Every structure is written in structure tokens, then in C-alpha cells.
Amino acid sequence: MKHRTFTQKSKNNRHTATGSRCPLRLKYMKYLFCYGVLFFFPFLVRAQETAHMSIGEKRMLPIKEGLYKSFFNTGNGKPVKVKKFHLDEYAVTNEEYLEFVKANPQWRKSRVNRLFADTNYLRHWESDLSIGEKNREIYRSPVVYVSWFAAKAYCAWKQKRLPTVAEWELAANAPPKNQKYGTLTEYILNWYKKPNPAVLPAVKSTYCNTNGLYDMHGLVWEWVFDFNSYIRGGDSRAKGNEDKNLFCAASSLDVKDRTDYAAFLRFGYRGSLKGNYCIANLGFRCAKD
Amino acid sequence: MKKNIITYGALLILAACNPEVRSIEKKDCCARKEEVAANPRALPSQSIFQIPDTFETQDGLPRTLSMFAGRPTVVGMVFTHCGYACPRLTTDMKNIADSLHARGDEINFLLVSFDTKRDTPARLKVFAKELELDEKWTLLHGNKDAVRTLSILLNVQYEEDTDGNFAHSNIISVLDKEGVLQYSKEGLEADHSETIGMIRQMIAAN
């Protein structure tokens, strides 16, 4: 009993002590705490964000600024300066695209506007919100059968954008890290020769280039922001005078390197596309400044 | 003292909520934009007028393409520093306008610029004056995204070079009063009798 009274007493004492003898220290401690939290708060948020980026988001790799010479020499024929930018390390997968479709009902198969995506849109998916249990193998494969409008909307949703032709070509021209592929052109032409595989392999299944980017060639073709840049009439079938009437700078149309057959095919392919086309071997990845 | 703590508490909560609020706002705005694109109330699914982007006229007025609905629209894509093709494409459009004898409330003539940097509304106004374009004509300045989207829908190809000039296809497109692409003709000084006939029918039917 005695003991108990004593502790009670001491508690009371302490209470009065803090209340009367050291009021200032406590007051400042609280201020210090508040300011401290306020001060460190931005760092805490930043730390959380970066943690989120590394777990939830795929990596975006920096691509150094460089000069890009258009395959078809349109305009004045000078190389274009490409500013430093960031590019997704691999193409957008079916799994990732499903999240977008869930969050944006207007991009579901059954609701999409035909002006923005043709009837092939996501034709390999089982339904609006399901890739399909039988399609398990392609969850991590690049999403294909998506239009330019769909790709652009996806990137905007991720607060990213589609890369330009110049950006994409510059990033993709980097040689493979793994030397077993020989020259890049050989490797690409080898891929072009092959028919589309029955089941599209997963991302990161081909080579990684010295920029750290996977599958720039060898898995799917990719949408770019200005795919309609390539001007017809620039190929060897140019019809002379007639073409001058079609294009502002047609007189200076020329090909950069006639031996780069792989690039020739790529530009021909892009030139044949329309914005709402959805095709079996055409996917995309996003860029950011 | 207590008040102070409450204030800081509130500040902290605000600070904590802020990024959240921002991201929600962003999603909201984009969702709404997309919705306009996908679920237009009056426009048919093939209408180009569904693109949600806002352009600016030569008078500096904001315009979405849907604001041109209600009458047929003739569209050309040009840039005003173009020395060769664009004045000729514009002349072709002017010839079409002249042979139609149509009033401003019957038809729209749109010139949309590729040159998002130099073709400011003020510059477009000067161009319109130089080429004596009357009230039927609207010259539009837009951002890169909007112009690229429109070019894709009109099947116009273009590419900027390092001098800021553009190599581009010359196409005159005719949209019906709901913004559906009905007809387009490629080339300069092309025979536009078919184009004119098509537009006449549209005006008569309207």
C-alpha cells in the first residue's frame, strides 16, 4: 500500500513538474516534431514514389541525345537532333494493357469507336476484360491488335507518350549487347524472313541492346507517334514530275542508304499503316521526355 | 498550444493528401476528354469531329472541331512559310469556294497548320489577309498532338525538317455536316469538278 501511494505521489509530482518547471522544453519539442515531420515529408513521399516505380512500374531507360538521319531524305536532308528522352525497357504487355482497359471503359473491345480502332482490335482476347485462361502464355507478351489511337491513349494514361520515328530509330540502332547475333541488320532481316509465330513470345525474349532496351527488333513492330511521316514517292518507283505536285519538298526526296534494306522495309511498313489499323505483329512502347 | 497542433495536423494531412488530389484531378480530366472522344452525343462513330483537342483560330478563339458541325467542311493542311505547294493548295480551295458561290452559313473552309511553332494565330491572320480569305475560312493553330491526330484521320502525311519546314502530302478533304470524311483528292491543281459536285449535293441536302 505504502509503495503504491508513493508511486502515485511521484506521478503527481512529475506531472506538476512538467506543467510548471519545464513548460518551454515541452513546447519546443512539439514544435520541433511538427517542423521535423513537415521538413522530412517531401523526402518521405519521394522515397515512397521511387519504391513504387521500381516495384509496380517497368523501368524507363534514358536515351542519350543524338543525331538521326531520316531514312528517306525529305526536306533539306540534314540529320535531326534528338533530345535526351526515356523509353520503356520493353513493349507494353497484354497484362499491362488489361489494366488500361479496366480503367478506361471506352477502350473495351465492345465499346471502342471504329474511327479509332478497326474490327481487329484486341481480337486475340477472350472478352472485354479477359485475355482468356487459354491464352495464359501471352499475358507477358507484347499486346498487339492495338491501333495508334489506342497506343497513344495508353501512354497518355501512364503520363507518357509515344516515341517519334527519330527517337525510336535512334534508340533501336544501338547494337545488341550479346554478340552472337552478328550485325544488327543481318539479325533484323532474319526476323523479317520468319513468319509470325503461332504464339507470340514474352517480352525480353530476344536481345537487349546497349541502351538496355529489349526486343527493339525481333518480336513485334512498334507504333510511333509520327508513323505517317514517311512520304510516298520516295522509293525507287518515283514517277518523276507528277510527284512534285503531291509533295512540298518532293524534289529532294532521296534514300539515305540504299543497302539498308531492313530500314527500307520498316519505313515502307509504317507508310502503309492507318491510325485505326490493328495488326497481329504490331505493338508499342511508351516514351517520356 | 492545442490549436497549433491541430493546425500542423491539418497541414500535414493536406500535404499528405495533395499528391493524391492532383492525380485524381488528372485522371478525371483525361477520362472526361476520352469520353467525349468515345461517346459523342450527336456525332456518328466515323466523325472526325470527335477528336477532343482544342485549336485556336486566326482571331485567337478556341475551337474544337465539333463546333464546325452543321454544315459541310472542306479541309486542307498547310503551313504558311511554305513557298511552293501550300499557296497552290490554298488557291485550289479558293477556286472550289469561288465556283460554289456558297455563303458562309452553308459551308466551312478550314486550313490547319502543321507549323505549331511559327503559325501563331497572328501569323495565320496575316496569311488569311494576304490570300484574301473571307468569313467562310477558318485558319487553325493546334498543338503537335492535335495536328498529328488530325493528319492521321485525314490520311495526310507530313514530316518536319531541321529548318522547321514541312514535307507533306497535298490533300483536300470534304467532310459532311457531321464531320464524316466523304471525299478527298490528292495533288495540286487537280481536277476538282467531282469535289465541287460532291459539295453541291451536300449543301443542297442540308
Write up what this structure looks like.
The complex is a heterodimer of chains A (289) and B (206). Chain A folds into 2 domains: 2-48, no CATH class; 61-288, paralog of FGE (formylglycine-generating enzyme) (Alpha-Beta Complex), CATH 3.90.1580. Chain A has 8 helices and 7 strands; from the N terminus they run H-H-E-E-E-E-H-H-H-H-E-H-H-E-E. In chain A, strands 1-4-7 form a 3-stranded antiparallel β-sheet, with no helix packed on it. Chain A has a two-stranded antiparallel sheet with strand order 2-3. A two-stranded parallel sheet of chain A has the order 5-6. Chain A has 289 residues and is mainly alpha-helical. In chain A, 37% of the residues lie in helices and 7% in strands. Chain B has 206 residues and is α/β, with parallel strands linked by helices. Chain B has 2 domains: 1-39; 48-205, Glutaredoxin, CATH 3.40.30. Chain B has 5 helices and 9 strands; from the N terminus they run αβββαβαβαββββα. Chain B has a 5-stranded mixed β-sheet with strand order 5-4-3-8-9. Chain B starts with a helix and ends with a helix. The chains are: A mainly alpha (289), B alpha/beta (206).
- The average pLDDT value of chain B, as a whole number, equals 82
What is the count of helical runs of chain B? 5
What's the total count of β strands of chain A? 7
Separation of the first and last Cα atoms of chain B: 73 Å
CATH superfamily of the largest domain in chain B: Glutaredoxin
The major sheet of chain B is characterized as: 5 strands, mixed
Q: Kindly, what is the distance between the CA atoms of the first and last residues of chain A, rounded to a whole number of angstroms? A: 74 Å
Widest β-sheet, arrangement of strands of chain B:
5-4-3-8-9
Which architecture of the largest domain in chain B does the CATH hierarchy give at level 2?
3-Layer(aba) Sandwich
